[in-house]
Backbone:
């Protein structure tokens, strides 16, 4: 199973796309010319309806984008990804978050061993543990049932569990789940001050178990617990999720309280593993399994659907088109549900840590734009915050609008209002408002002459702003699993086309190294040589 490494700029399709990018067509014109555009540029899959017709593409662009995917051998790359090939070559690892939700019958081999039975063994361990904590049969050091769970982790060991736990709030049980991530001592203290040691369970999540933030927070939490209940309480109140069993032991967590994970799961793709323990505690193991089922369905879709009907492929190629050929710097993610409040932050790590790379898979600097900036907030709140810039600013911002046909609590009156905004915004962004329309509107309001003329330019909306609409039936564990997996595969496809390694994150190392040097200087009288700005700032902090 080879993982191709093809310079995309040398393909025929790339050259074609460069040509097309020189004469972009207006969305309003495309819609006027193509009566069946909406139907042609949409994909219906399970409970997902993806309308990508409001994008700056026509049949030729789309054809060239699919040709690009073929020329960079996306098909071979996809097989290598699912088959467990070492596609994370700079860390010498397979990338197998898909194995975490594979069906029991599948065989996926790493180092000549099928990893699927081990995945199911850990899933069973999660199931049994969560059931005991939820029904109260596994109790605390004082014999009480746990009421609160605190997930201590950062990055992929925090963002995924936190985002999903909030997203599935409707399906939650009685356990209150909290998240501590930042090394900011005020964060840990703010969370702990609301809790009672006797009924609090800590889940320490760190793939490496060397992360400064997580170890500091876990140590502070341990002190808080033992101050109230004594050292022996740790065995009942702390569990850990990690690949580093030795470090967990030296931290003082009992081996029976350890949930293993594997190095073939990247932190930002790990919520499907035992890293999702807090999710399973919050919503129960059955909902956690449904989340994994949804992801598996999306895996199958991505692995099998032809490129033209393949949701992650189409979305990724659109991102490549905007980022690399049309000069877009960012992509907005606007979920029209408060439950997905943390989705943009979660995707920021997934997308930007993966594809924020400038060296290709041959070790050469790329000559084209790669990973984009991802940002966003839930609608309708976002409309009252940054939509002004999207409608009338100077930036090209392709946006994903994610909405659900059904709300969870009923409340149709609210849902209709929410969804009216959802549909109206993509229409407004695309269609805009012409000068003639503005004049007509202002005259109808009684304005004329100078006072009308002065206002006209400010009231025009050029439109032609691209959006993709994901209309999903209902927010359930299953559809959420599929949605997250969709973005995971989108990241993969982009990395393949850009010919970069999406699964390492060397870019976060330098800051960590320098922080450790500076930390050593905090209490010391001597200091290491820094640039004059850093020296000045440190002197001020220490004084
Ligand atoms: O920020 C770098 C990073 O390695 C992420 O990729 C990861 O999700 C996070 O730190 C936490 O790492 P760990 O789970 O090993 O504590």
Residues:
């Amino acid at each position: 199973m080879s993982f191709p490494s093809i310079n995309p700029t040398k393909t025929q399709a790339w050259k074609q796309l460069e040509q097309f990018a020189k004469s972009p067509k207006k969305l309003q014109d495309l819609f006027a010319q193509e009566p069946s555009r909406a139907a042609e540029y949409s994909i219906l899959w399970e409970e997902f309806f993806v309308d990508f017709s409001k994008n700056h593409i026509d049949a030729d662009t789309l054809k060239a984008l699919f040709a690009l995917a073929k020329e960079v051998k996306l098909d071979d790359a996809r097989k290598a990804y699912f088959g467990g090939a070492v596609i994370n070559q700079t860390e010498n690892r397979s990338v197998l978050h898909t194995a975490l939700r594979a069906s029991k019958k599948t065989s996926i081999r790493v180092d000549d061993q099928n990893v699927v039975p081990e995945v199911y063994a850990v899933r069973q361990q999660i199931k049994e543990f969560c059931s005991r904590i939820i029904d109260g049969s596994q109790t605390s050091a004082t014999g009480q049932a746990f009421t609160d769970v605190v997930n201590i982790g950062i990055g992929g060991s925090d963002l995924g569990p936190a985002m999903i736990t909030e997203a599935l709030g409707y399906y939650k049980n009685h356990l209150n789940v909290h998240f501590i991530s930042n090394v900011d001592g005020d964060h840990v203290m703010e969370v702990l001050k609301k809790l009672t040691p006797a009924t609090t369970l800590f889940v320490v999540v760190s793939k490496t178990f060397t992360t400064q933030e997580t170890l500091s927070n876990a140590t502070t939490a341990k002190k808080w617990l033992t101050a109230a209940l004594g050292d022996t309480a740790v065995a009942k109140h702390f569990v850990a999720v990690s690949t580093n069993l030795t470090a967990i032991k030296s931290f003082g967590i009992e081996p029976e309280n350890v949930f293993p994970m594997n190095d073939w799961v990247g932190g930002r793709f790990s919520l499907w593993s035992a890293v999702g323990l807090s999710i399973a505690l919050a919503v129960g193991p059955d909902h956690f399994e449904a989340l994994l089922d949804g992801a598996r369905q999306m895996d199958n879709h991505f692995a099998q659907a032809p490129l033209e009907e393949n949701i992650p492929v189409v979305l990724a190629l659109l991102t490549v088109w905007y980022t690399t050929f049309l000069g877009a710097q960012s992509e907005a993610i606007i979920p029209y549900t408060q439950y997905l409040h943390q989705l943009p932050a979660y995707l920021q790590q997934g997308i930007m840590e993966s594809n924020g790379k400038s060296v290709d898979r041959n070790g050469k600097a790329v000559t084209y734009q790669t990973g984009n900036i991802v940002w966003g907030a839930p609608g309708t709140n976002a409309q009252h915050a940054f939509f002004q810039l999207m409608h009338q600013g100077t930036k090209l911002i392709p946006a994903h609008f994610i909405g659900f046909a059904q709300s969870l609590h009923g409340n149709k009156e609210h849902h209709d209002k929410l969804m009216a905004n959802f549909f109206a915004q993509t229409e407004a962004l695309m269609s805009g408002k012409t000068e003639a329309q503005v004049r007509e509107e202002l005259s109808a309001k009684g304005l004329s002459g100078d006072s009308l003329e002065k206002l006209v330019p400010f009231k025009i909306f050029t439109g032609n702003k691209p959006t993709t609409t994901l209309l999903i039936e209902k927010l359930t564990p299953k559809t959420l699993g599929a949605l997250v997996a969709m973005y995971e595969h989108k990241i993969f496809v982009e990395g393949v086309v850009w010919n970069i390694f999406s699964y390492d994150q060397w870019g976060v190392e330098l800051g960590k190294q320098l922080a450790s040097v500076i930390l050593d200087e905090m209490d010391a009288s001597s200091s290491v040589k820094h640039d004059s700005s850093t020296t000045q700032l440190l002197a001020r902090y220490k004084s």
